[in-house]
Design a protein that fits this description.
There is one protein chain. Helix content is about 30%, strand content about 20%. By secondary structure, the chain is α/β, with parallel strands linked by helices.
């Protein structure tokens, strides 16, 4: 087993800086590329980043890189890597993914097959197994990925298992939910802090509210789920438990948060409440069935976060136009509140009735969206009575 690893956190385009900031907070040095944040660390780093990164998709080990312009180069390059340091005898090691971009090798099934063949041959040699007898794959799973970009192959092992956005609390969801890690990233991009009120007036299954509560209470987002690496024989179970215990000790369950979620659909409010319960947040978030147009508050310096329905999500164009217009009118009196609204509608500002102070391009899955940011007027709280 290796002591140090080259690692990469994969991330949705446009959110690399958010994951970089999280890396820094965890004490790691890092480098950012499109959709990737590179870092180095030991087994504890693998455990810690899987447990704590809110905006990343997966944590992968980079086994190696080499030129691969021909299938022979690919085979020899894969064979030369130190697979015996990662894969114990009996391990399952599917070549789960192959991706070829701007490369001479572009037949992805063939790339997968040759990669598998090379690893099998390497392990047969290392473990002194005859070449004519297939390796038994009956143990823990190590999903291997091969990426060939501009004739350079990168071989990786996924440590996460299911994507990190699957926190384990969403037992039900609505028609077009936002991913948990995208919601967390938008919260990190906003100017919300746990001492401010937070409202999602179109809360759906409650993802923004739940992610905010987890952040506000400093609960590790991966606390209620398991990871692929936990089944690996070279990852010490005692170390995993120690990192989990440390995360548990870091949580602040006593902090008072002011987080509310509203939705016109009463069924969605029930789902949001169930999801919050599953996340261990009973009584922390206030959910209520309510039309967006009926939202009023005397509170100041709050934050509105919303992923309202848009063309590709549930409503027809006319209904969307009306909703955005009513949203603009309803939120306009909240002068000290900042608003962060995610939509794919390029005419949103016109329908909303105000130009955003800032706009950030993101991707909700494969759909290009914009995060429209409207900043509230800063007011000292003791300057306002009541």
């Amino acid at each position: 087993m290796k002591k140090q690893f080259k690692l990469v956190a994969t991330v949705a385009a446009g959110l690399e800086s958010v994951v970089g900031k999280e890396m820094k907070a965890l004490g790691f040095e890092y480098q950012v590329e499109n959709g990737k944040v590179y870092f180095e660390g030991d087994v504890q780093a693998i455990i810690k980043t899987n447990l704590w990164l809110r905006a990343a998709d997966r944590i992968k080990i980079i086994v190696g890189q080499f030129p691969a312009r021909t299938f022979e180069e690919l085979f020899q390059g894969v064979y030369a890597l130190d697979w015996e340091c990662y894969l114990p005898l009996g391990a399952k090691f599917p070549i789960a993914k192959a991706k070829c971009v701007k490369s001479k090798l572009h037949n992805e099934p063939s790339v997968q097959a040759i990669t598998k063949k090379a690893i099998v041959k390497k392990l047969q040699k290392h473990f002194h197994r005859p070449e004519n007898v297939p390796l038994q794959e009956i143990g823990a799973e190590f999903k291997i990925e091969v990426s060939i970009l501009k004739d350079v192959a990168t071989l990786m092992i996924d440590t996460s298992g299911t994507s990190l956005f699957k926190r384990g609390y969403r037992i039900e969801k609505g028609g077009a939910p936002i991913k948990e890690n995208m919601a967390a990233a938008i919260l990190e991009l906003s100017n919300w802090f746990p001492d401010k009120p937070l409202v999602d007036p179109t809360c759906g299954s409650g993802t923004f509210c739940i992610e905010a509560a987890l952040m506000g209470m400093n609960i590790a987002p991966g606390f209620n789920r398991s990871f692929a690496f936990e089944e690996w024989n070279w990852v010490d179970k005692g170390l995993v438990q120690a990192v989990r215990d440390e995360a548990e000790a870091a949580a602040n369950y006593d902090i008072q948060l002011d987080i509310s979620g509203f939705d016109i659909d009463g069924r969605m409010i029930q789902i949001a409440q169930k999801n919050a319960e599953e996340a261990g947040l009973v009584g922390v978030i206030h959910f209520k069935q309510m039309r967006l147009q009926d939202f009023r508050t005397d509170k100041i310096n709050g934050v509105i976060i919303s992923n309202p329905p848009y063309g590709e999500r549930l409503l027809d164009d006319k209904a969307v136009d009306i909703l955005y217009n009513e949203m603009g009118q309803t939120l306009a009196p909240l002068k000290t509140w900042s608003k962060f609204i995610l939509t794919s509608d390029e005419n949103f500002e016109k329908k909303y009735g105000r130009q955003a102070d800032k706009k950030r391009k993101l991707y909700n899955g494969t759909l290009k969206v914009d995060l429209y940011q409207f900043y509230g007027q800063r007011v000292k709280r003791n300057a306002v009575k009541g």
